[in-house]
Design brief:
Number of helices: 24
Largest sheet: 3 strands, antiparallel
Mean pLDDT: 80
Number of strands: 9
Radius of gyration: 32 Å
Helix content: 55-70%
Structural class: mainly alpha
Strand content: 5-15%
Length: 493
């Protein structure tokens, strides 16, 4: 048996199609075998007879997408003039075509699945409708039989005669219609639609709502009583201030489209089981509201990785509470490669991730390597750079041009050796104009010398005390030296 490589992927669909061209009078080419699955690990083996065996791990997400595909196909058939009963009869016998629809969806949005980002309902429908429109243009009146007999190509005889619908609105026209709906007057109430009024009472203005709808058109069609209001009231019960609700909805309007009982609350319980502090939900949701929209598989993959690099369960809970957006990073594309890179610098990855998880959302090529090269070019060794990042986890999160370079240039005018930055890399975390320059100027004026961390890390009152003490000590030393010199001179005379 010949074995192919095992493929792992974070929260996305892996799909493989083995094509055999089957051309008929319709001109349609079908895949002979189609496999669509979502799995953490999928193994492929070829048998002696040339068949392909695949281990499929079924998921609720795939099932949900299949249901959405059936709903889209049902509406498509009804627009073609078929009754609901006939459309349902055809679709119930068309599982292979439904799988084919999903393969097209996954192909179109492959990059989204690879980084673990789920599609919205509107995005799924747009992709499937576009594909169905192209099939209708290609097969015309024969489309129903194409669906019904897939993957065996039907003949044209006895085909169902269907009316050809006008072209569907483009995504841009749908978006424009949704945005215009924000400011439309409800013909029955004679004022803005209830959910728009409600959002304005929460503190949003019309333009803010339009901005949300431009990014997520479905939001404008959400029911006030059925979707928006229950979610808002639930957040208020969690202790989220009313003034924070508009920010949360602007960041993740999809929250209002998710069932409280079937999705939001169970997801929160699951996260609490992973260590998220339930007393901190108000802060967690405000920081990263998208956390509640990820699937359990995606969340568990992130947690599994944290455990893999040696972070304790207690620390994982603290990370998820303090920096919940860590789950938005792809394990294979971000977390694992970044961990490997920092290990090459001699850094304890578990400690670094706990202290500053933001590092793991940065690009290795665009962000991390340039910072390393910056310090290497200035004479630091890899070991010294590793010590600096270990002592100050946020070091790599600063901009080279706006932070590191100007602060380095000023540091070179200060009376400190470059080794001082290895001891105190936190230097780069202080404001150049508001902290570094004024504090250093005061120290120079006083005529004393303090350690770099004393100049910057002390509070204003403590800095004043240390400076005063140093000045007094210097004066005492000067007085003692003067007295000693006077006595020596008198003895000589």
């Amino acid at each position: 048996m010949k074995s192919f490589s095992t493929i792992q992927s974070p929260h996305h669909f892996f799909f493989t199609r083995f094509y055999t061209s089957i051309t008929s009078r319709t001109g349609l080419t079908f895949p002979a075998k189609l496999f669509v699955c979502q799995a953490k690990s999928v193994s492929f083996h070829s048998g002696t007879d040339g068949s392909i065996n695949i281990k499929v791990v079924p998921t609720t997400l795939l099932a949900a997408e299949k249901e959405e595909a059936r709903a889209v196909l049902t509406l498509f058939f009804k627009k073609l003039g078929l009754s609901t009963a006939i459309a349902a009869r055809i679709i119930n016998k068309s599982d292979l075509f439904i799988d084919h629809l999903l393969s097209k969806l996954h192909q179109k949005h492959k990059s989204r699945y690879l980084v673990g980002r789920e599609l919205t309902t509107l995005e799924i429908r747009d992709a499937l409708n576009t594909f169905l429109d192209s099939l209708l243009e290609e097969h015309g009146n024969n489309l129903v039989r194409v669906v019904e007999y897939y993957p065996d190509p039907p003949g044209k005889e006895n085909s169902t005669v269907l009316p050809i619908p006008p072209p569907r609105p483009t995504l841009e026209s749908k978006k424009h219609k949704a945005v215009s709906r924000v400011s439309e007057i409800d013909p029955f109430a004679g004022k803005l639609r209830p959910h728009i009024v409600y959002l304005m009472e929460l503190g949003m203005d019309i333009e803010q709502i339009r901005t949300i709808v431009r990014r997520f058109p479905s939001f404008v069609y959400y029911s006030l009583e059925g979707k928006i209001k229950p979610v808002v009231e639930f957040f208020l019960e969690l202790g989220i201030p009313k003034e924070d609700i508009p920010t949360i909805l602007a960041k993740r309007p999809q929250l209002c489209g998710i069932s409280l009982s079937e999705n939001l609350k169970p997801t929160m319980k699951f996260l609490e089981s992973l260590g998220v502090d339930k007393k901190q939900w108000a802060k967690v949701i405000y920081r990263f509201p998208a956390l509640l929209t990820y699937s359990r598989q995606k969340l568990k993959e992130s947690v599994d990785f944290l455990q893999e690099i040696g972070i304790s369960d207690e620390s994982i809970g603290k990370i998820l509470t303090r920096c919940p957006n860590i789950v938005s990073y792809s394990v294979e594309d971000n977390l694992r490669p970044t961990a490997k890179y920092f290990r090459s610098l001699g850094v304890d990855v578990g400690i670094l991730l706990f202290r500053c998880p933001q590092n793991f959302g940065l690009s290795i090529e665009a962000n991390l390597k340039p910072v390393t090269e910056f310090f290497l070019d200035r004479g630091y060794t890899v070991e010294e750079i590793g010590t600096m990042i270990s002592r100050f986890g946020a070091l790599y999160t600063f901009s080279l041009t706006e932070n590191l370079v100007p602060k380095w240039d000023f540091f070179m005018t200060m009376d400190y050796p470059t080794s001082e930055l290895v001891k105190f890399p936190q230097f780069f975390g202080y404001s150049l104009e508001e902290r570094i320059k004024p504090r250093y100027a005061r120290m120079k004026e006083s005529g004393v010398k303090l350690l770099l961390n004393q100049v910057l890390s002390l509070s204003s009152s403590n800095f004043d005390k240390v400076l005063k003490k140093k000045i007094e000590k210097m004066q005492v030393n000067q007085d003692s030296s003067f007295i000693s010199k006077t006595i020596q001179q008198e003895n000589q005379n």
